[in-house]
Specification:
Layout (H helix, E strand, L loop, with lengths): L14 E11 L5 E9 L7 E7 L7 E2 L4 E2 L4 E5 L7 E8 L2 E2 L19 E5 L2 E5 L6 E9 L7 E2 L5 E2 L4 E5 L5 E14 L2 E15 L6 E8 L7 H12 L3 E8 L8 H14 L5 E7 L6 E5 L9 E4 L53 E4 L18 H20 L9 E5 L7 H11 L4 E3 L2 H5 L4 E7 L6 E2 L3 E2 L9 E2 L1 E7 L12 H7 L1 E2 L3 E4 L16 H9 L21 E3 L12 E8 L2 E7 L6 E9 L7 E2 L5 E2 L6 E5 L11 E12 L2 E6 L3 E4 L62
Parallel strand pairs: 16-40, 17-18, 17-19, 19-22, 23-24, 23-25, 25-29, 28-30, 29-31
Antiparallel strand pairs: 1-2, 2-6, 3-4, 3-5, 3-7, 7-8, 9-10, 10-14, 11-12, 11-13, 11-15, 15-16, 20-21, 26-27, 31-32, 33-34, 34-38, 35-36, 35-37, 35-39, 39-40, 39-41
Length: about 750
């Protein structure tokens, strides 16, 4: 060895490497840093080299220039919530010691299991990422409606396991809970991390989604009449039976909520088909309940908005009896949170019964700054509120019809480091995949990049979450938010009825956002969306969760009256491309329809429906799906029922595909494209007449269509009733020549 040189063998590896996270650090109060410290016995080192890995040590990147001698600490700016591994080596010229043992800060990412599911024939394979601190794993299973879990692994799985499989017949689905016993859960303490997936093996199509009730602010109904008509038909085309009522606008008196709930309950009980969703549109009276401060601020104590009041016990005669109004919780700073006896604000901090129907709210009242998101500017704040509702319903229509497509990715921007950040990491994996869920800056990412899901966590006010987003940034026609479903956490803005509220402005803004939730107090569980359930079903499941389960950890605020969904609760995440160029043709008393198939090569077939009105109810008239002729191809179908009247009929065509998500496989249907039939014959000019006997000879159906066929049963119908109509009444084959 030449004099003056130092061999790598003479340099010891640094030891005792420790890493911690600093959130919201100076100079801007929003920077997140990893802080490293180590010890070293070398006396010949000239400095240190710090490296990081984003793939658990498979590849390493050097952070900047080598540090000077005698260093024993370093800092690294990183995206909040980012999971990186670090190591340090001693250096002297070209000589580098062996690296220290790697170390990583414990983050909320370490307190979840990112579970996904893959289907192979009759087997469901659960998968999760390797975790270096794992001790063992347990897998549990339950039916979707069950409330208790069955242990599937009597002997815990070893620490290095990254999956588990079982036989599940086609058509079946189960919820799975994966539990990881792990070291360094909170600092040096061991703990249990949880993950969930609702996994299915080629689950059958959800053809009819049930009845949805639209509760519309009567002061907005006229201004958004055209959009409401289209929205009703969009719901109809997605398998919903639609009912609509109008109610008085909120005037600041919480007592109005009692009247509105009575109207909702009357509508729910007026028909035998159970109510499955409630959409509040406009400034529908806001219920208030509670005597606490859900975000921990003593000056935010009292009653908070409580839309869960509209969902508890709905459809059950009598409903819950647990709502009282006798408590006192004074808030002299924020008078809207004051709760006094007999003031119309309820006392309960926790829901007094189960939410039986999901509730969502599309309400843009008192968002005056959002007026500046338009160009040209609406003349008044009142006009701006209606314009915001129209913009939201336009976006809703575009989503359902696949006019635009969100990237199947998710981001998380965490500036708190607490339990709230678990919501994104845990929920997004079974929806878009663990590898498609990443840490990223909310603003710089979502202002120009599409993501299906996003989570933003930061210290808050009514109008912003520090480091994530502020409402003032949305008050411009050039500001867009390109996420669809948003989980947000921070102080104050969970109290969403205040002016310029962040949760409501996110879905009012330009862009693609349709839903926002205050997630973290308590944790929410929306993993069932991966198998075609609605966001509303996930929210209801979260509202009915308790500290004892079935979903863990529920966290502070479990079953709280404050939990609410901003946006449309009927939305799903997987959208199938619809057919195009749908037309109708009539000849010799026979109706036919033709269409162009979508460009999606995975479309397997089509269902055809018929109704006597564009507002339904619709009845499927093919017994099995009509196989596709291929992508971008013209197809046609002939109605097997000869028509003897001049009546117009509406036909609907829905494309069918076997959808694959990180939760498995299920049959999915597109939004239904509709067309109205003609009243006279084309071609030969024959007059409408009744045939000698009904026949399916002119159609590809394998059997004659008769009144006895199950495809005409009420259970197969999807329809629309407005007001308090009784719904499905007439025999669908009356007046059709049979």
């Amino acid at each position: 060895m030449l004099s003056g040189s130092v061999s790598a063998i003479d340099l010891n590896a640094p030891t005792n490497l420790a890493v911690s996270i600093g959130y919201r650090e100076a100079p801007d109060g929003g920077t997140t840093r990893a802080h490293l410290s180590w010890t070293d016995t070398n006396t010949t080192e000239a400095g240190y080299r710090v490296e990081y890995s984003s793939d658990n040590g498979f590849s390493w990147n050097v952070i900047g220039a080598d540090l000077v001698a005698n260093s024993s600490s370093a800092a690294h700016v990183l995206d909040a919530g980012q999971k990186l591994y670090y190591r340090v080596s001693a250096v002297n010229g070209p000589s580098v010691s062996l690296p220290s043992a790697s170390a990583s800060p414990v983050t909320p990412f370490d307190r979840v299991v990112q579970v996904t599911a893959t289907v192979y024939s009759d087997t469901i394979h659960l998968k999760w990422p390797y975790h270096p601190d794992a001790v063992s794993y347990n897998v549990y299973r339950k039916a979707r409606t069950a409330t208790t879990w069955t242990l599937m692994t009597p002997e815990p799985l070893a620490a290095n396991n990254v999956g588990w499989a079982e036989t599940v017949p086609q058509g079946q689905a189960f919820e799975y809970q994966v539990e990881r016993i792990t070291h360094n859960f909170y600092g040096p303490l061991d703990g249990t991390a949880f993950g969930y997936v609702y996994a299915g093996n080629r689950v059958a199509l959800t053809e009819s989604r049930g009845r949805v009730l639209l509760v519309v602010d009567q002061t907005r109904a006229s201004a958004i009449s055209a959009e409401l008509t289209r929205y009703r038909r969009d719901l109809l085309s997605d398998g919903w039976t639609v009912q609509q009522i109008t109610v008085a606008r909120d005037n600041g008196d919480p007592r109005l909520a009692v009247t509105v709930r009575a109207q909702i309950q009357a509508a729910a009980l007026a028909q035998t088909a159970p109510l499955k969703s409630i959409v509040l549109i406009g400034h529908v009276p806001v219920p208030y309940s509670g005597t606490t401060a859900w975000d921990g601020h003593t000056d935010h104590n009292g009653a908070w908005p409580a839309d869960g009041y509209y969902g508890v016990g709905i459809g059950i005669p009598g409903g819950p009896t647990g709502w009282t109004d006798i408590a006192t919780a004074l808030n002299l700073t924020h008078l809207d949170n004051n709760n006094l006896p007999l003031d119309g604000k309820f006392d309960q901090n926790n829901l007094p019964g189960a939410v039986t129907v999901p509730v969502g709210r599309i309400d843009f009242a008192n968002l005056d700054g959002m007026r500046y998101s338009f160009n040209p500017l609406p003349a008044t704040v009142d006009e701006s509120e209606s314009a915001l509702l129209r913009r939201y319903l336009d976006r809703n229509h575009q989503w359902r019809t696949r006019a635009w497509i969100a990237s199947k990715t998710a981001i998380e921007d965490d500036h708190l480091g607490g339990g709230a950040a678990e919501n994104g990491w845990r929920n997004f994996a079974p929806l878009v995949g663990a590898l498609e869920t990443r840490s990223a800056d909310f603003q710089t990412t979502l202002f120009d990049t599409s993501n299906l899901f996003a989570a933003g966590i930061g210290p808050g006010s009514t109008e912003y979450a520090v480091g994530v987003l502020g409402t003032s940034q949305l008050h411009s026609p050039d500001a867009y938010v390109y996420s669809v479903f948003n989980l947000m956490s921070g102080s104050w803005f969970g109290d969403w009825n205040k002016p310029t509220n962040l949760l409501r402005e996110m879905i009012a803004a330009n862009g693609t956002s349709l839903v926002s939730l205050w997630a973290g107090t308590p944790n929410v569980f929306i993993h069932t969306m991966g198998l075609d359930e609605t966001i509303g079903q996930g929210m209801m499941m979260s509202q009915n969760n308790t500290l004892s389960g079935p979903y863990s950890p529920a966290s502070s605020g479990a079953s709280g009256t404050h939990m609410g969904l901003m946006g449309d609760p009927t939305l799903t995440m997987s959208i199938v491309a619809p057919v195009t160029n749908l037309t109708s043709f009539r000849s010799a008393n026979i109706n036919s329809v033709s269409w162009s198939t979508p460009s999606d090569a995975s479309i397997t077939g089509f269902h055809i429906y018929r109704a006597e009105s564009a507002d339904g109810p619709f009845y499927r008239i093919n017994s099995t799906a009509i196989p596709t002729a291929g992508a971008n191809t013209s197809m046609s179908f002939t109605d097997p029922t000869p028509i003897r009247t001049y009546k117009k009929f509406t036909y609907m065509v829905r494309a069918i595909k076997m959808q694959t998500t990180p939760s498995g496989k299920f049959e999915n249907a597109s939004w239904g494209q509709t067309v109205q039939s003609q009243t006279i014959n084309d071609g030969d000019g024959l007059e409408p007449r009744a045939p000698a006997s009904p026949s399916a000879a002119r159609t590809p159906l394998p059997a004659t269509i008769t009144k006895a066929n199950a495809i005409f049963s009420a259970g197969s119908a999807i329809g629309s009733t407005f007001g308090s109509g009784a719904g499905l009444q007439a025999d669908p084959l009356d007046d059709l020549g049979l």
